[in-house]
C-alpha cells in the first residue's frame, strides 16, 4: 500500500487530471462553476496545459490521483495581490481522511509568498466544503445569490477570503493545522 503524497501536477498528469476533473463535474455540478459540457470535449493535452498554466496540487497514492486543489494567480498589475482557489475535489473513496485539508494547507503555503489574500466561492449548501475552508481560516465576506443556474434551478454561493498579509490580527495557520493527511 502506497502512502498518500501531495505534489504539483504537471502536463504529464493530463490524462489522470482529465479523468478526475470530469468525474468531479459530473458528480457535483453545483460545486463548480465549470459545467461538464464546457470541457468534456477537450483531450488530455488540453488538461495537461492547464496544469502548467496554474498551480494544481494533487493528492496521489502511487499512480492514482485522489484529489486536487488549484491556485490561480492573476497577472494584471492591480489584481496580482490576490489569488483564487478553485477545483477543490477529493474522490469519494478518500474523503474524511484529511486530504482536503492537507491539499488546502499546502496550497496556502504556496500562496503565502506570492499573494496577500486568497479568495474562493463555495456553494451555500455545501457543508463539507464550508467546514473545510473555515477550518483553514477562510472567512465569508459575501453571498452571491443565484450564482449558478443548473437546468432551471439556481444555486447561491458564499464568497470566502483568507487574508495572508497586512492583517496583524491573524494568527499563523501553522498553529492549527497538521501538514499530513490523517491516516495517509
Ligand atoms: C469538500 C471536500 C473537498 C472535503 O474533502 P475531505 O478530504 O473529505 O475533507 P477533510 O477530510 O480534509 O475534512 C476537512 C474538514 O471538513 C469536515 N468535513 C468533511 N466532510 C464533511 C461533511 N460531509 N460534512 C461536514 N463536515 C465535513 C471535516 O470534519 C473536517 O473538519 P474538522 O477538521 O473540523 O474535523 C470533499 O467533500 C469533496 O470533494 N466534495 C465534493 C466537491 C466539492 O464540493 N468541492 C468543493 C468545491 S468549493
What ligand molecules are bound, each kind once?
coenzyme A
How large is the count of helical segments?
5
* Mean pLDDT over the residues: 92
**CATH fold-type name:** Aminopeptidase
Write the CATH homologous superfamily.
Gcn5-related N-acetyltransferase (GNAT)
Q: Widest sheet: strand order?
A: 1-2-3-4-5-7-6
Global structural class: alpha+beta
Q: Write down how many β-strands occur, each being a DSSP E stretch of 2 or more residues.
A: 7
Q: Give the helix proportion (percent range).
A: 25-40%
- End-to-end Cα distance, whole Å, is 10 Å
CATH class: Alpha Beta
Tally of domains: 1
Lay out the secondary structure:
Layout: E1 4-8, H1 14-27, H2 36-39, H3 44-53, E2 55-61, E3 64-73, E4 82-90, H4 99-111, E5 117-123, H5 127-136, E6 139-150, E7 153-163
Parallel strand pairs: 4-5
Antiparallel strand pairs: 1-2, 2-3, 3-4, 5-7, 6-7
Helix pairs in contact: 1-3, 4-5
Bound molecules: coenzyme A.
Coenzyme A (COA) binds at residues 28, 31, 88-90, 95-101, 122, 126-129, 131-132, 135.
Tell me what the structure shows.
There is one protein chain. Residues 175-179 have low confidence and may be disordered. The longest helix has 14 residues, at 14-27. Helix content is 28%, strand content 33%. It has a single domain (4-175), classed as Gcn5-related N-acetyltransferase (GNAT) (Aminopeptidase, 3-Layer(aba) Sandwich). Strands 1-2-3-4-5-7-6 form a seven-stranded mixed sheet, sandwiched between helices. It is globular, with a radius of gyration of 16 Å. The protein is built from five helices and seven strands, in the order E-H-H-H-E-E-E-H-E-H-E-E. Helix 1 packs across helix 3 (44-53) and helix 4 (99-111) packs across helix 5 (127-136). It is an alpha+beta fold and 184 residues long. The N and C termini lie close together (10 Å). Coenzyme A binds at residues 28, 31, 88-90, 95-101, 122, 126-129, 131-132, 135. The site of coenzyme A has 20 residues, from strand 4, helix 4 and helix 5.
Amino acid at each position: 500500500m502506497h502512502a498518500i503524497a501531495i505534489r504539483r501536477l504537471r502536463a504529464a498528469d493530463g490524462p489522470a487530471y482529465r479523468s478526475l476533473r470530469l468525474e468531479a463535474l459530473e458528480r457535483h455540478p453545483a460545486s463548480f462553476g465549470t459545467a461538464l459540457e464546457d470541457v468534456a470535449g477537450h483531450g488530455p493535452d488540453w488538461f495537461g496545459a492547464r496544469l502548467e498554466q496554474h498551480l494544481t496540487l494533487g493528492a496521489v497514492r502511487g499512480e492514482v490521483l485522489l484529489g486536487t486543489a488549484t491556485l490561480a494567480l492573476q497577472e494584471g498589475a492591480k489584481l496580482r495581490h490576490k489569488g483564487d482557489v478553485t477545483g477543490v475535489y477529493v474522490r469519494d473513496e478518500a474523503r474524511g481522511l484529511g486530504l482536503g485539508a492537507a491539499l488546502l494547507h499546502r496550497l496556502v503555503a504556496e500562496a503565502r509568498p506570492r499573494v496577500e489574500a486568497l479568495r474562493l466561492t463555495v456553494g451555500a449548501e455545501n457543508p463539507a466544503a464550508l467546514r473545510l475552508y473555515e477550518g483553514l481560516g477562510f472567512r465569508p465576506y459575501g453571498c452571491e445569490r443565484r450564482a449558478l443556474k443548473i437546468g432551471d434551478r439556481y444555486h447561491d454561493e458564499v464568497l470566502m477570503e483568507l487574508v495572508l498579509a497586512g492583517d496583524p490580527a491573524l494568527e499563523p495557520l501553522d498553529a492549527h493545522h497538521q501538514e499530513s493527511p490523517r491516516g495517509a
